[in-house]
């Protein structure tokens, strides 16, 4: 069941309008916790898929992200720009990047997924190759003079140093602080950085002048936020440029507009400048802001080489700022998911505890009435009291399932590890549930293991898992069917299998039966009961003991559920390390 996310309105709007498909997915259950409009559109039109394909004449539709999701979740590795070829007949190709986000052992790992159209990426790569080609030609020409070679080396070192400084942190305030200290290699040059916020507002970072005596004037440019209030009458609002612009004192009105008014221009003239170079910070075709480089008075206008250097520097700033924002948004989503999960768990635990008291009282008063404490009881009344008791017990069972689920989710489940005979556990469960099987006219059979099959686990948790698996088989096996219980050893693993002759489970349902609160379709059973927590709880308990619960099924033949656990060694100590479960394991050697 998908968890509810609490997302800040501005963040949600920003992600919903993102130019790429963006989603946050729970790694184990493949549950989509958040998806922007582009991602939902691609899913709804069968262009990408994160699970089993839609049943459409047997032909898989859309690019399959599942192998990449499995790899990233299993190895906790980042995948960048993996190209997915669509099924035959489909035209679109997609590039997928996946970032694992592991919060803590108590919270499920998540995957941040970004999908882009390869054609758009190819266009960007073509432009990058064109730029690289121009740079190469320029470098070849620069070989004609030693001075040009030295200049190219200094330029490369400058960009490498800037890239290193910008990549030191994914914290947005730190990135902005690095940006405001940028300058070009020309002595005396300084810069003014204007950043476009997610709400469209323009925020000017603190300007830092290389001459401390002029820093106070530079600070005035920061306090006077960019606006068009004092621009010349009749002029339209200034949109951020998409190409570099060089302005001098001879630029006239354009200089006033670039300075954002006569007042700011007077401050710039008082500080002194030779020319202004305005370059946009563009990433993924979106302008993130501008950097205005200011040369000292008397200097010649910026050269084409300096304009290219400034553009490269602005591009690196744009990428660093975008990465910091994406990281902040992903972290916000993670914290929102954690809050929602804690709220859900607390509510379920509180609700379950509050319901147990009145239900126990109902059971107690029902027994008093049945005993005749308050007067004689007729057969009709006794039948009614029996039905009340049966429903009361059913409700208590459901509440117990919820409490077990809450304990596992909150990491409060305790385990006492020791040697557990699987054949003995299967026999005990068979005796315990024989009545339920007879009532359904279903045969419970136990196979011959041949040799002793011993697991290293918590005996109570093993029996709890087996009860859930057998009751699930009894529930869905029709009258006259058979449920076979068996165990075996496979290398360092022991297996307990519950095989039924029920109607089977469809493949698309087989992928979701281990998710909380998921039940099979009503057509598979005449009587549906429970909350759909038996299988999820069983799998989490098994994984906490370094094992697992898996399922196989064939429609019309039946289903097989297998509990795998570590095999008990002959040595005394076998304390397990933490497994794949989100449950915090308390080991008490028995």
SSE layout and pairing:
Blueprint: H1 9-16, E1 21-26, E2 32-35, H2 37-44, E3 48-49, E4 63-64, H3 66-75, E5 79-84, E6 94-101, E7 110-117, H4 118-142, H5 146-166, H6 172-180, E8 190-196, E9 202-204, H7 215-223, E10 245-247, H8 253-259, H9 262-271, E11 276-283, E12 286-294, H10 304-370, H11 379-410, E13 414-415, E14 417-421, H12 422-439, E15 443-446, E16 454-458, H13 459-476, E17 482-490, E18 493-500, H14 507-510, H15 534-544, E19 548-554, E20 558-566, E21 586-587
Parallel strand pairs: 3-4, 13-21, 15-17
Antiparallel strand pairs: 1-2, 1-7, 5-6, 6-7, 8-9, 8-12, 10-11, 11-12, 14-16, 17-18, 18-20, 19-20
Structure write-up:
- The protein contains 15 helices and 21 strands.
- Mean pLDDT is 78; it is low at 1-18, 226-237, 522-528 and 577-590.
- 27% of the residues are buried.
- The two termini are 36 Å apart.
- It has helices at residues 9-16, 37-44, 66-75, 118-142, 146-166, 172-180, 215-223, 253-259, 262-271, 304-370, 379-410, 422-439, 459-476, 507-510, 534-544, and strands at residues 21-26, 32-35, 48-49, 63-64, 79-84, 94-101, 110-117, 190-196, 202-204, 245-247, 276-283, 286-294, 414-415, 417-421, 443-446, 454-458, 482-490, 493-500, 548-554, 558-566, 586-587.
- The chain has four domains: 9-121, Beta-Lactamase, CATH 3.30.450.20; 166-326, 2-Layer Sandwich (Beta-Lactamase), CATH 3.30.450.40; 349-402; 414-587, 2-Layer Sandwich (Heat Shock Protein 90), CATH 3.30.565.
- The chain is 44% helix and 20% strand.
- It has 590 residues and is an alpha+beta fold.
- The radius of gyration is 34 Å and the shape is elongated.
- The protein has a five-stranded antiparallel β-sheet with strand order 2-1-7-6-5, with helices on both faces.
- Strand 17 (482-490) and strand 18 (493-500) form a beta hairpin.
């Amino acid at each position: 069941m998908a968890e509810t996310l609490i997302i800040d309105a501005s963040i949600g709007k920003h992600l919903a309008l993102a130019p790429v498909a963006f989603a946050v997915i729970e790694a184990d259950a493949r549950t989509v916790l958040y998806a922007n409009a582009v991602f939902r559109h691609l899913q709804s039109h069968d262009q990408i898929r994160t699970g089993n394909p839609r049943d459409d004449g047997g032909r898989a539709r859309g690019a399959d992200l599942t192998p990449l999701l499995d790899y990233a979740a299993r190895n906790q590795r980042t995948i960048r720009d993996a190209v997915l070829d669509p099924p035959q007949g489909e035209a679109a190709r997609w590039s997928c990047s996946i970032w694992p986000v592991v919060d803590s052992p108590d919270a499920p790992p998540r995957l941040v997924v970004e999908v882009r159209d390869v054609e758009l990426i190819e266009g960007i790569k073509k432009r990058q190759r064109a730029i690289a080609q121009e740079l190469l030609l320029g470098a070849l020409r620069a070989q004609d003079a030693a001075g040009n070679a030295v200049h190219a080396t200094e330029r490369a070192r400058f960009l490498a140093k800037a890239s290193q400084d910008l990549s030191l942190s994914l914290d947005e305030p730190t990135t902005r602080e690095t940006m405001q200290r940028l300058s070009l290699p020309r002595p005396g040059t300084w810069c003014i950085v204007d950043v476009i916020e997610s709400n469209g507002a323009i925020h000017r970072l603190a300007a830092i002048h290389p001459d401390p005596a002029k820093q106070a004037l530079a600070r005035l440019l920061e306090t006077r936020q960019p606006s068009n209030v004092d621009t010349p009458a009749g002029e339209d609002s200034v949109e951020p440029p998409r190409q570099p612009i060089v302005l001098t004192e001879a630029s006239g009105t354009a200089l006033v507009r670039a300075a954002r008014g006569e007042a700011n221009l007077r401050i710039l003239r008082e500080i002194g400048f030779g020319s202004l170079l305005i370059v946009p910070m563009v990433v993924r075709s979106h302008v993130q802001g501008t950097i205005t480089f200011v040369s000292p008075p008397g200097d010649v206008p910026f050269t084409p080489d300096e304009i290219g250097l400034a553009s490269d520097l602005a591009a690196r700033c744009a990428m660093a700022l975008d990465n910091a924002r994406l990281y902040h948004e992903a972290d916000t989503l993670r914290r929102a998911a954690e809050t929602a999960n804690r709220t859900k768990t607390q509510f379920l635990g509180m609700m379950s505890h509050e319901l147990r008291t009145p239900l126990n009282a109902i059971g107690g008063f029902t027994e008093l009435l049945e005993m005749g404490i308050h007067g004689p009881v007729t057969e009709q009344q006794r039948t009614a009291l029996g039905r009340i008791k049966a429903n009361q017990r059913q409700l208590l069972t459901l509440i117990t399932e919820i409490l077990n689920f809450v304990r596992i989710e909150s990491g409060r489940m305790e385990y006492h590890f020791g040697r557990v005979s699987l054949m003995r556990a299967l026999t005990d469960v068979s005796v315990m549930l024989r009545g339920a099987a007879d009532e359904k006219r279903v045969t419970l059979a136990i196979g011959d293991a041949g040799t002793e099959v011993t697991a290293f686990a918590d005996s109570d948790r093993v029996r709890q898992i087996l009860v859930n698996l057998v009751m699930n088989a009894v529930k869905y096996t029709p009258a006259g069917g058979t449920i076979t219980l068996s165990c075996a050893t496979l290398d360092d693993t022991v297996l307990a299998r519950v095989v039924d002759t029920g109607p089977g489970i469809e493949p698309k349902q087989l992928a979701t039966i281990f998710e909380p609160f998921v039940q099979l379709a009503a057509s598979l059973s005449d009587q549906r009961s429970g909350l759909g927590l038996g299988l999820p709880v069983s799998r989490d308990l098994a994984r906490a003991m370094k094992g697992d619960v898996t399922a196989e099924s064939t429609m019309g033949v039946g289903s097989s559920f297998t509990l795998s656990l570590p095999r008990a060694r002959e040595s005394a100590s076998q304390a397990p390390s933490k497994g794949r479960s989100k449950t915090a394991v308390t080991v008490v050697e028995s």
